[in-house]
Structures
1.
Amino acid sequence: MFSAGDLRKGLKIEIEGHPYVITEYTFTKPGKGQSIYTCRIKSMITGQTHMKQYRSNDKINKPQLEQKELIYSYKDGDMFVFMDDNYEQIMLDESTIGDARFFLKEDIEVEVLFHNDKAIGVELPIFVEREITHTEPGARGNTATNVLKPATVAGGYELNVPIFINEGDMIKIDTRTGEYSERVR
Amino acid sequence: MQHIYPEILQIRSNTLQAIRGFFLSRNFVEVETPVRLPAPALEEFIDAIPADDWYLRTSPELHMKRLLVAGMSRIFQMGACFRQGERGHLHNSEFTLLEWYRTNADYQTILADTKELIRHVAAEVLGSTTISFGEITIDLNLPWLCIPVKQAFQKYAGWNPIENFDADRFDLDLINKVEPGLPKNRGVVLIDYPVEAAALSRRSADDPEVAERWELYMGGMELSNAFSELTDAQEQRQRFEECAAKRAKAGSEVYPIDRPFLAALEQGMPPSGGIALGVDRLIMLLANVQNIQEVRPFADG
């Protein structure tokens, strides 16, 4: 259990069995009154945010969270199959994987967050490399990085890339934003 | 990362000098009372920081009242006070409190002092009677607005806390509904609190359901808390005991009752008015900054 005094930005708490992270936090205390902790909390499952206030004597549940490193193996129907350190198979569905599904590739190592032993989120390496499978040719000699054009990478993910990128190039993608980062030599 | 702002520290120094000048020119005596003490004032929601077997003071109130019993009539003190777990943009666990007390006075006398003090300090420090505070301009030439707590709650929160006091609802509505509604372009005083929130103030002779206590807001920020002081030893003892019981029930540490203070009240304290004013917050107004850490070098962070 946390007490209200433990609340701070970034703390992970549990309300009615649901894990949240505190994204904003304000301490107020009216003269002679009790401390009031006003928090914006973000669901670690849906990403939705709302406001929540606590008073000095409130107790707050601590979520049981565990982070595991898993290796992605293959896709089996709608399920994504991962392997842990003990070569145990762990199956996650598409809604748990979210946008990370675009960047999964065999043998990639991911961090999976479990809440009460149920996977709730997948964290990829910050950068993944992908081959460009389709893009229109850019103007010859144009090395500008601020002019972008659409492209598709292996696996079907679409993004904008600089004009000098060609089909067959390897690029780095920032998985936090899903955006182009740089060309790999 | 701790930031030091030399220009704000200059304003801080000017403010401290202006406050001292104000009181000295009005024949107040500057006093210093113990910072480490065996029995911090028992209040339901104020926690003291332990120091050896004793505690750091949360306010100099009880010792200053003993000076009144000992025959002093106008006293002030500015110094560090400490409150456990208070940290936010308006709170630092160590902070500078100004308290002053007058005998043969009440909370109205103190209100008149406060108006003069704020005008004096602004004139000395800013050379002006307007204060820019973020997007707010506070005009010290406008008369302060005195709103009874009952009216403020009826207007902004839709209920009467004097009739039906509810401590939890009172604090939440004060923060969420009443304070945001208060005008910010002038001093605003919430006055005549429910007796349940009287702290160390006396009951009003006209209405025993209210206590003679007020809180000053400047630019929407709570700046000070004033009382017609409770001088009745028996009622004071009873309030301490009730407070100790509430703290015990909430699982908070229960501090010993300050017996020498009660003994002084039994000896007879003249009718008095007193106030605590947050000096750091006053400096925030004058320096036009929104975070207490910016006006205190080496703050909690």
Note: The radius of gyration of chain A is 22 Å.
2.
Amino acid sequence: MSSRYLEMVRGQRRRGGWQFTSKSLLAILAFIAMIGSAVYWWGVQSQLTGNWIIAAAYTAILVLAPPSLMSFLIPWSPGGMLLQKINARTWGYVAVMIAALYLVYYSFEIQWTWWASQPVVQSTGLVIQQVLIGIIGFIIIPALLWTPVTSEELVEQVRQAHLVRRYELQTQADIAILRATLLRAQEKALIGFANLTVQEREELAAVMRGLVKGIDATLRDIGESVKTVSGATIPFNSLEDNEDIRQYLDFVAETLTENSLLPRRASATGQHEAVTRQISQRDQEEYYEDDRRTRALRQR
Amino acid sequence: MRGYRYTTDDRLPERDLAELADELAIQLHYALGERVCLLPRSDVAELIWPYIDDLHPDDQNDLVWLVWHLFQEARELSEE
């Protein structure tokens, strides 16, 4: 699905060297903020308990857990958005969301109390501003950098966006072709298929089903390629299970092969159509005669 | 009508078209180096013409656009 040429150019570029970007600056800032966060939380936790091991553990939790959990909630790449969309249906995502929100609330409350106890901040009424700066620096900035996907996948984010869009467009195009083909077949079945032999009709019905399977295979292939690049599984609904498509197929198959269900299959032998009609009428009469006998036996 | 794998006319399906565009872009890049990213679309058309002259006219036009777009994306990547 992806462009081999662009992959080649990217590969050449990756070997080219490192560039200082605003994201690199953000990474340095996040690193400094997290050291500051560790100092801050150690100061708070060591006041709450005399046991330094517990204080150190709580400090580690409050420095590392909020950004890592928040990183699941605020993706900033198309791949991350796709992952979030898919993960949103899992219980794990709900747990991550609850834990992240509680940790942010806890962080907010402690920082509020801490800043409110600082006389200058209290007197100038800057408590909420200071707390929000703390939340951004300690949690949001590191969370933006710690995306839940690997760095390799982050590089691929543009490709993923194209891939997802392409997946949608190609699926629509394939389904449109399928629908047009089936409708055309339906039309022909009503008008001109009377001239086809039984084998040809059965073959045509099989072709229709084969076509649907082919489209299914295409969709599965595209879904697999999305999974390969992004690690995200796109739920695949088989077209054969689709009620509308199944109705089309059943109608076509029924229209094409209903005569072939009659015994003897005179038309299959290549005999004249009039002979076929005579034999079919005789068969039907025999069939109804048998049916009457069966009913009479049942009534007895 | 055109899909990813199938077409209802004599044009190339989407996948074949993209693969051909990729292949042509790679060959041109190998032959001419980074300069290909600066080529205008008419030059790209002239360069790939011998390889696509047997295709449907619409496919030829699409291929020129696709290859040119690949070069533009490559240029954006190298400027990042």
Note: The CA atoms of residues 26 and 67 of chain B lie 9 Å apart.
